[in-house]
Amino acid sequence: MKQLSENGFEVYHESPDVKANYILINTCGFIGDAKEESIETILNFVQAKEEGLVEKVMVFGCLSERYKTELEKEIPEVNAWFGKFELPKMLEYIHAEHFKSINPSRILTTPSHYAYLKVSEGCNRTCSYCAIPKITGRHVSRSMESLVEEAQSLVKMGVKEVILIAQDLSDYGIDLYKKPMLAPLMEQLAQIPGLKWLRIHYAYPARFPVDILPVMAKYPNICNYLDIALQHISNPMLKAMRRNVTKEETYELLHTIREHVPGIALRTTLMVGHPGETETDFEELKSFVKEMQFERLGVFTYSHEENTYAWDNYSDEIPEELKQERADTIMEIQQGIALSQNLQKEGKTLKVIIDRREGEYYIGRTEFDSPEVDNEVLIRSSKKMLIGDFYEVTIQDADEYDLYAVPR
Question: Taking the model in full, what pTM does it have?
Answer without folding.
Answer: 0.82
